[in-house]
Each structure stands twice: as structure tokens, then as C-alpha cells.
Amino acid sequence: MMTTVIVEGNIASGKSTFLNYFKRKFANRVSLCFEPLHKWRDVNGYNLFDLLYKDSQRWNFAFQMFSDLTRLQIHESRTNERVKIMERSLFSAKHCFVENSYQKKLVSEVEYLILNEWFNFYTKQRNLKVDFIVYLKTTPEVCLQRIKLRNRSEEEDYLKSLHDLHEKWLSNESDKTLIVIDANRTQDQLQSSYEKCAEIIFNKRDCPKTLFLDKEPVMKV
User: Pairing between strand 83-87 and 3-8?
Assistant: First the structure.
């Protein structure tokens, strides 16, 4: 049976880097699903990402609906590999990004209710199994520093809001195994944590419902 892993964390927490580690080390053993940015940038010629950044309030609902559709397609896609690792998920979309949009009044009350209805419907009707959540826990300050190094811009308040929403959601997540990695560290420092995480995922090792990985010994994959 396939093992499903979702990788969660703030903007610039290192999610793509985490997936690229598995791509380098275990390319033939995992199916890697990066966020489908290419789809969001070309909806039959429309760049939904660009529209969202130009007018967040006008396009937020459309973006959330379409991004949810693409995430659902990824979650339900079949693979021959026994491990599927996804960058973000429907769950963080709902509990972090939709909630943030509602708090900031970027979606209306009725749009928020529609998004919730959709989420409740497809999570109840579909088999959206998740075996592990890997949480790359990073402070908003570190995320902001990394974003600046990439010559990108992001508001610190937005990063703080997303951080708090991730913390709230994952502290109440009880039916999935949560693996927490301190992702404030450098890539060199994180290598051992990636190795431990791979060992747990590939061997489906029994572990507590919440596992702070940096306290665990390294084992062979």
C-alpha cells in the first residue's frame, strides 16, 4: 500500500528543498509532487497567480477554488512508487491560506462558506489518506530573511499570520503522524534530519503521533 506524505510549512521554510533531497537520493523510490505553479500561471492563457497579486480581493476566491482542484487531482493521482510526497496539501490550503484570507477579508462571508463546504465535501467523500505530515517549522523572521535573499518580497505580517495558523492547525491534528523538523537551520545542518525522516517514511516506523525529529537517532534507510 502506498505511503502518502504531505510537506507543510511557511513560505521559504524549505519545502521544495526537502522534496529535492528525496529526488536526489531516492528518485526511483518516490513520486514527488511539487506545487503545480505552472497550472496556476496558465489557466487557458490566464495567469491566476499574477491576477491574485494584482488584486487579491478580486481573485482570491477563484485562486483558492482552482488551487484546491489541482491539489485534489495531485492527491488522487496514481503512482507506481510506494511513497508519494506532496508539497503542501488541501489541508494546509484550508486551515492556513483560506483562514488567512478570511481573517484579512480577502474573501467574503459567503465565499468562505462555499470554500468550507467544498473542503468538507471532498474530504468526506474522497479517500484523502495521509500517513505522515512533515512540518518544516521555521520562524517568520527566518522566512523573511530567506525571501529577501531570493530578491522576492513578502509582508512580515503575512508570514506571521501563516506561521500562527500552521501552529494552530497542526497542534490540533490528531489522526495523522506529525514529524516536526526545526527548519531554521542551514541545509548542511538539516541533512541528518532528512535522513531520519526518510528512514521513518520508507520503513513506516512506528512513532508517536507527534515526533520532534531532531531528538531522534539516525537509522539506516
Answer: parallel
Across the beta sheet with 3-8, what order do the strands follow? 30-33, 83-87, 3-8, 132-137, 177-182, 210-212
Catalytic residues: 87
pLDDT single digits (tens) 33-58: 999 999 999 999 999 999 999 999 99
Feature table: binding site: 9-17, 146-150
149's grid cell: 535573499
- Express each pLDDT in 175-209 by its tens digit: 889 999 999 999 999 999 999 999 999 987 667 77
Q: Is CATH 3.40.50.300 the classification given to domain 3-215?
A: yes
Residues flagged as binding site for ATP: 9-17, 146-150
Listed in order, strand segments (DSSP E) in 151-217 are 177-182, 210-212
Domain chopping of the chain, boundaries: 3-215
